[in-house]
Amino acid sequence: MIVRYPCLEVDLKKVEENTRFIVDKCSEKGIKSFVVMKVYCGFKEIAEASLRGGAYGLADSRVQNLEKVKELDCPKLLLRIPMKSEAHDVVRLADISLNSEIETIMQLDEEARNQGTVHKIILMIDLGDLREGVWFQSIDTIVEDILKLKNIKLHGIGTNLTCYGGVMPDDENLGKLLEIKNEIEKKHNITLETVSGGNSSSLYKVLNDTMPEGVNMLRIGETIVLGRETAYGELVEGMHEDAFTLKGEIVELKKKPSVPIGTIGMDAFGNKPTFEDRGEIRRAIIAVGRQDVNPDGLDPLDEKIDILGASSDHLLMDVTNSSKEYRVGDIIEFKVDYGALLNVSTSEYVAKVFK
Ligand SMILES: *Cc1c(COP(=O)(O)O)cnc(C)c1O
């Protein structure tokens, strides 16, 4: 088989094991795990690995990614507050969506009626992180309005933290969420099935056994993909951090100076570059560029390699200190961070290889 480079290699067994690790920890605490696919653009092979690992459902921000997994038999959750204009696809592709605007919810109600179904929503509450959600002090009228709709089921409430404002999930804000749930139930004489307590940044409370009782759903992306919890940025012991690897090919390898010769103007991106004089070095050019990935998010597995910079199509590296004698045509492997994984998954120039 001919492999095209650059490629993103995905170890499906490791994705499955990472999922199993998180699903088991969560279910011990009565929490359902929705696995979030958006960072890898909803590739079905990877989603299937998470289902083999016991994921309760699949979640994504984009209806296009939910479409890719629509044949897979599990609940689907739309994460991004829906656009009114996509209501048709939301009802068609998602069993549940996260919402905060009554106008949109009414649109979903109408769509659900047309499609002969009932669409479930989770009302998002902003507990202070200032991304999405109804401000926690003013939820009353929207709940009343939602309960009037015949083809919408208020499945529960939820929150998102540590995304815009960097606010950590804690007993105070999650406690507030549970309080709000109780108030809604009492006031309207209903039961809410779900309290969705956040993303990978809420996992530390599961892992150290401090999650308040009543939170019964989490939406987990990054930790399953990169083996890292995101409240403190710690690797989770027992998980794989290397399920995803970017591979690029050396197209030029030459001894050259480390500082350019001539008057320094601007680089291809309008910045005035500066250089450290390391004398003459072995410079490798990899056929990967900013069109594929922000080089700041790449970390070569060969620790003796330094990334010098990148243009649209070239990644420049100093391989002088490596113990390996690299040659043209050799493959260099990189660990990716969340942003880099988002980039390379999205780039149509990066082949995807599942093993
Ligand atoms: C992206 C997203 C998640 C998953 O976040 P991770 O940090 O990758 O776990 C959960 N909920 C919402 C609303 C999201 O947009």
From TrEMBL:
Name the coenzymes or cofactors required.
pyridoxal 5'-phosphate
Q: What keywords were assigned to this record?
A: Isomerase, Pyridoxal phosphate
Q: Which Pfam families match?
A: Ala_racemase_N
Q: What is this protein called?
A: Alanine/ornithine racemase family PLP-dependent enzyme
PANTHER family named among the record's database cross-references: ALANINE RACEMASE, LYSINE RACEMASE
What InterPro entries does the database record attribute to this sequence?
Answer: Ala_racemase, Ala_racemase_N, PLP-binding_barrel
Q: Which residues form the Alanine racemase N-terminal domain?
A: 10-225
| Cellular component, GO annotation | cytosol
Which superkingdom is the protein from? Bacteria
The GO terms describing molecular function are: alanine racemase activity; pyridoxal phosphate binding
